[in-house]
Amino acid sequence: MAESNVVSLKKRGAPPPAIPVTDDVNSNGALPADQALEDSLNELRGDLIYSINESPTWYASILLGFQHYLTMFGSTLGIPLLLTIDLCMADTPVDIGKLIQTEFFVSGLATFFQSTFGTRLPIVQGASLAFLGPAQAILRADGPCPPALSPENRTDEAIAMREEFWRERMNLLQGAILVTCLVEIIIGFTGLIGLLLRFIGPLTIAPTVALIGLSLFNTAAFFSGGNWLLAGCVIVLISLFSQYLNRIVIPIPGFSADRRVIRFPIFKLLPVILAIIFAWTLAAILTVTDVIPEGSPGRTDARANILRDSPWFYIPYPFQWGVPVVTVAGVLGMIAGVLASTIESIGDYYACARVSGAPPPPNHAVNRGIGMEGFGCILAGLWGTGLGTTSYTQNIGVINITKVGSRRVVQLGAVIMILLGSLGKFGAFFATIPIPIVGGMFCVLFGLVTAVGLSTLQHVDLNSSRNLFVLGVPLFMGLVLPAYMTANEGVINTRSPEFNQIVTVLLSTNMFVGGVLAAILDNTIPGTNEERGLLSFRQSYSSPELVERHLRCYDLPFGMKWIRSVRFFEYLPFSPTFQGFLRRRNKPSRNGDIPNGQTNNAMDLNGDEVA
Fold it and tell me: Given Cys at both, which of 37, 104, 260, 357 links 45, Cβ 3.0 to 4.6 Å?
């Protein structure tokens, strides 16, 4: 997994490189291209402590990776718990624990493959809310759950029959996920999804990414509503640690002879972990003293049964619930979840690239990312999580708070997910974190994701009435239409139940409504490239050489020298040397070659279209 670390020589204390004697050397002794590259990289880096190709020390990486694990814990725990209701698992609490372990195990695998071979961005994968609606519809069409077993009827035989019942329902979901995620793999690795990038500019990205955060306010409110004291405590502590105390460092022992003491910016790097620890401790005190009443989700013993019933060790494996069953209705219904998840993930890629110091993702990275998300969904179908996987928005917010965009940190976080997904008691212990604490964390992180989306507007002329229209209408409709669809179930009523379900899920997805509408308006309403922000979007890339150097962070972790030497790879949509389905119509670069990876409009230096 060798990768080039883009770390400034000044920070490493190394002497400056020798500059070759050419006619292009300017008066201060620096090559113009080198200076332009350094300035452009610094602009992308912003105030990051570690950018995408840089790695903290091993112990800091483990802590930061664990912080990502805790951040995604709420959704990865909460979404499967919602699914267990329709799976009819009320009488099998041990199986619920195994299902949660499986979700974390698969999320770790999907995250590792995505960050290593997919987009190569530090982006976390987990259970997708977009699949929950179709999954519930499939299960409800299969029939209602039987009544819960009374204490006197809880025999071993009765419990075994309930286990068989819910596993048969899970097999229906597994079959639907396996088939529909093949569609996601196809549209990714064949480059079909990358063709859409030519229509995506700042005015499309801004409302799409902003709606990712805004659409989750109900989730944050639901989680926080269990106990606003604990949720408010988390909000205050994360704000305090990340914004007010972020310059405070503490001395810790070093691990080398030349660095006996290291000054560690603990509040800047670990604000989420510290906030959770403080709030969890407060919740434990309030639980012991019965200040928080029985039955409240704010109590630390609210889910103690999961800890009690979970096995010490359980390694999830494929087909652990049985053989998947494929039905036409299930496949057609689940397609809506795949489409909604795909649109959401494209917005997440742009947001993650922005906060981690990477340029906007080129076509090949998006193609590979969507294809790898499909592969992650295949893993979910084989292992039996009941839901597909998607990119997690809240972990992008963590990068924005901690200013650590390192890919290696997320890869270590993925390893932690896999390990803890195999240690039942340890994972179940963290499942006892009170839900309101997770809700308070969501309030901060989803707000930051919204801000990341809106920050793309810095490239756009906001004095233009055209741009205000293109921005405002999709942003508002992205909230209005899904809210209407949620409040009026069954409003889409045709003779095809599958068609009804697909349209309902898509129109209920905020990112789909806002993103598609913004793309249509931005590409059909007349406006200049400068007005739309496209020129500013490209200004950082003043030559093909700069484009190629910027896009190196999207290269595969090995074999790039061979890939660049074989011309065949230029025609593969998922290859880092992919040139597009049609050759560029502009003039070649100074060395006569078409710059590698230069395939999306954000990188198009001359404004020409790229297929």
Answer: 357
Closest CA to 120 of 551, 419, 531: 551
State whether residue 489 is helix, strand or coil. Answer: coil
The pair of three-digit structure tokens given for residue 415, joined into one six-digit string: 């390893």
What is the Cα–Cα distance from 448 to 393, expressed in whole angstroms?
10
pLDDT digits (tens, 9 = 90+) for 446-495: 887 788 778 878 878 889 999 999 999 999 998 999 889 878 878 888 88
Say if residues 342 and 180 touch (Cβ distance below 8 Å): no
Task: Decide: residue 247, CB within 10 A, 0-12 exposed, 13-18 middle, 19+ buried.
Answer: exposed
Tokens representing residue 78 in the block? 């909460």
Nearest CA-CA partner of 74 in 408, 443, 415:
443
Q: In b/e form, how buried is each residue of 336-350, taking b as 16+ CB within 10 angstroms? A: bbbbbbbbbbbbbbb
**pLDDT per residue over 386-405, tens digit each?**
888 888 877 887 888 788 88
Spatial distance between the Cα atoms of 169 and 166, rounded to a whole number of angstroms:
5
Q: Which 8-state DSSP code applies to residue 245? A: S
Residue 108's CB: how many other CB atoms inside 10 A?
A: 24
| Among 12-26, 62-76, 352-366, the least confident range | 12-26
In 125-258, where do the E strands start and end? 125-127, 250-256
Cα→Cα distances 70→386, 503, 583, Å: 22, 34, 45
* pLDDT of the residue at 376: 94
Alpha-carbon Rg for the chain, nearest whole angstrom, is: 25
Distances from the Cα of 497 to the Cαs of 84, 134, 334, in angstroms?
A: 24, 12, 12
Q: How far apart are the first and last CA of the chain?
A: 32
More confident residue, 540 or 538: 538
CA–centroid distance for 502 within its chain = 23
Cβ-based neighbours of 319, under 8 Å, separated by 6 or more: 382, 384
Alpha carbon distance 351, 358 (integer Å): 10
Model confidence at 318: pLDDT above 90: yes
Give the start-end residues of each E strand in 244-346.
250-256, 259-264
Structural contact between residues 330 and 138, judged by C-beta atoms closer than 8 angstroms: yes
Distance CA 339, CA 505 (A): 9
